Amino acid sequence: MRLLPLLACSVAAFVAQPALAAIIVSPTPNFVQPQENVLANNGLSGQTVTGTTNTTGTSVTFQSLNSELLFTQTNGQARFFTADGTLDAVAFYLTNPLLGFTQVEFNLFNASSNTTTVNLVFSDGSSGSYALGANGQNFFGAVATAGTIITRVAFDTNGSGVQDLRQVRLGGITSVAAVPEPATWAMMLVGFGMVAGTARYRRRKTIAVYA
């Protein structure tokens, strides 16, 4: 896991091992512009609440990471907040564990100048962490490339809190396919080589017997 600072109007590229996940992140609003907004019914509450994407109707789960109760309010796009107005740590992911996405963007509204950490988990089990610098930047956007699929997004304000999480957008919703790790590829290649060698050996042996 690596921690990268996000500078205003800059783009940071992160390569997560071991399956070479490739992700581009930016604190610039509308840098990503995913296709779907996440909507939620008004007045939901609980440590876990759900929303739905506006185009494909895909369910999205929002989970408090420190036992705070989450509430929802709708005014166009959904807002997720706590009763005391200091939302601290939340994770969100597609409710169906067989689905992931390649684009995400959200706004940590009225964030303080304290550093917030955003963590992304990928379908191969690897992850990457990114620090929103102490410069008041509220937006976070990420685009997964090279076949990478995001399965979970989480943020932690380290106790400072934000007013709410809003303008959550997702794009590239897709089925999650297992990505073989390099060690697995090596074992597969060795296995293929052994099978091929055995086949050649058997062919030679057969030719020798029947010659």
Task: Indicate the topology.
Elements: E1 3-6, E2 12-16, E3 21-26, E4 36-39, E5 45-46, E6 48-53, E7 59-64, E8 70-75, E9 77-81, E10 89-94, E11 99-100, E12 103-109, E13 116-122, E14 127-132, E15 139-145, E16 150-156, E17 164-171, E18 174-175, H1 182-210
Parallel strand pairs: 1-14
Antiparallel strand pairs: 2-3, 3-15, 4-6, 4-17, 5-8, 6-7, 7-10, 8-9, 9-17, 10-16, 11-18, 12-15, 12-17, 13-14, 13-16
Task: Walk me through this protein's architecture.
The chain is mainly β and 211 residues long. The protein has one domain: Jelly Rolls (Sandwich), CATH 2.60.120. The protein is 14% helix and 45% strand. It has one helix at residues 182-210, and strands at residues 3-6, 12-16, 21-26, 36-39, 45-46, 48-53, 59-64, 70-75, 77-81, 89-94, 99-100, 103-109, 116-122, 127-132, 139-145, 150-156, 164-171, 174-175. Strand 8 (70-75) and strand 9 (77-81) form a beta hairpin. It starts with a strand and ends with a helix.
Brief characterization of the structure:
With 211 residues, the protein is mainly beta. It is built from 1 helix and 18 strands. Helix content is 14%, strand content 45%.
Helix content: 10-25%
Report the order of strands and helices: EEEEEEEEEEEEEEEEEEH
Q: What is the global morphology? A: globular
Terminal residue distance: 60 Å
Please give the domain count. 1
Count of DSSP E strands?
18
Which percent range describes the beta-strand content? over 45%
Q: How many alpha or pi helices?
A: 1
- The CATH topology name reads Jelly Rolls
Rg over alpha carbons = 22 Å
- Any idea of the CATH class? Mainly Beta
